[in-house]
Amino acid sequence: MTWSYATHYVCDGCAKPFELHRPLNTCPDCGGLLEVRYDLGRMKRELSPGMFASRVPSMWRWHEFYPLRDAANVVTLGEGGTPLIRSVYAGRQLGLPELYFKNDALMPTGSFKDRGFSLAVSFAKELGIKRGLTYSSGNAGSSFAAYASRAGIEAAVLVEYLANPLKKSMIGLYGAHTATLHFESMNDITAMLAEAVQRLGLYQFVNFINPVRHEAMKSYAYEIAQAFDWKAPDVMVHPVGTGGGIWGAWKGFGELLELGWTDSVPRMVAVQPDATGPIVRAFRQGSRTAERYGDSTKTIAQSIAGDAPIQKGERVLSAVYDSGGFAETVTDSEILEAMRWLGNEGIAAEPASAASLAAVKKGVEQGRIRSSDRVICVITGTGLKQPSATQQAVPESELKLNADFGQLSELLAKLWN
Questions:
Q1: φ, ψ (nearest 5 deg) of residue 413
Q2: Given 97, 157, 194, 206, which is the most exposed site by the fewest CB atoms within 10 A?
Q3: In whole angstroms, how far apart are CA 137 and each of 64, 105, 171, 301?
Q4: What is d(CA 211, CA 305) in angstroms, rounded to the nearest whole number?
Q5: What is the pairing mode between strands 84-86 and 99-103?
Q6: What is the domain partition of the chain in residue ranges?
Q7: Among residues 377, 371, 373, which one has the least CA distance to residue 355?
Q8: CATH fold of 84-109+214-393, please?
Q9: How many CA atoms lie within 13 A of 110 on its CB side?
């Protein structure tokens, strides 16, 4: 059995190919981002959708679609295969009978980042990498730390100063070296990391600078299409920081279409906070590149608060434009409302995750999402990671009583009548 059908890298910038199992981050010739290519023709001849049904329902069910060559190098905590939950509350409010939530808040470290780091750390292990670095607003650092510890890779995480204390502590709990990173713009971070690649030869795990992390996000497409008997949804909504999630999912749906396993692709919707939405601003201007925009300190959606996307957001904007989708911003008040709505679904989502549902609401109001659409909202992280925001969404009850039947009876009458 062929474990992987990956063949080589291709640079986004100069289009040069590179051997897949070199320890590369960005293109050694021009500094562009690298993309993994696959032998889809051979995959079409040798693979079929039915062969995956009996495999363990995890991200690694789809190993042929990743660049890892040897199963012995897989580093896993049980990521992927998360539930696809049909809405019982928000869908009714919005007139969307086929609204679903892909709940990655249930991942091992509490966020969708576990998909990417399971693959990226496994691949690094296969390359013989012993040390690695990433930047994080919180969730990525926790995930990297956990998987690096499992793989025996020494991890260093630069945690942005805006990250909440719980997320910082979790990174240390999983065993990584941490330092708080101060900066004025994401452009400063990108420049610093690029110089570290060139001058230190340091292997990095930052989204897109690491060329394989987003490949794992293709599993969204495979899991969702399989759940619908190999039909793609009409709309997929994803919160966007650097954009590895939406780009990986879009690539996955494109592969399924090319293989002939599905006959359509979803319209991809990129969501950012109103305080800092460079992708949305570029989309509204009709541009395929995004410039620095906004203030990362002015939103509760920490995980998607970046003001300047990597490679000017070209990949994310391509996913949006090429799919016929759209990009939208949401305010903190809209996010808090979405958090409460998700609570009625039985889902505790952090603000960045709830942004996806807030964008669906706006999309319905604007006529961009129709009542007949099958819509997928990705829930990228648990609300337990950002407890202060959860408390802001739903403050503690002011009702009180003593352990007295009379008081209990009076309270219940007040609550239920």
A1: -60, -40
A2: 97
A3: 31, 16, 11, 10
A4: 22
A5: antiparallel
A6: 84-109+214-393
A7: 377
A8: Rossmann fold (3.40.50)
A9: 18
Radius of gyration, alpha carbons of the chain: 21
> 338 and 388 in contact (C-beta within 8 Å)?
no
Residue type, 262: T
Length of the chain: 417
One-letter amino acid of 351: P
Residue 99's nearest CA partner among 108, 109, 90, 110 is: 90
**DSSP, res 172:** H
Query: What is the 3 state secondary structure string of 190-246?
Result: HHHHHHHHHHHCCCECCECCECCHHHHHHHHHHHHHHHCCCCCCCEEEEECCCCHHH
Residues 6+ apart with CB under 8 A from 324: 267
| Residues 389, 339 contacting (CB under 8 angstroms) | yes
Q: Tokens in use for 148?
A: 């690096």
Enter the pTM of the model: 0.95
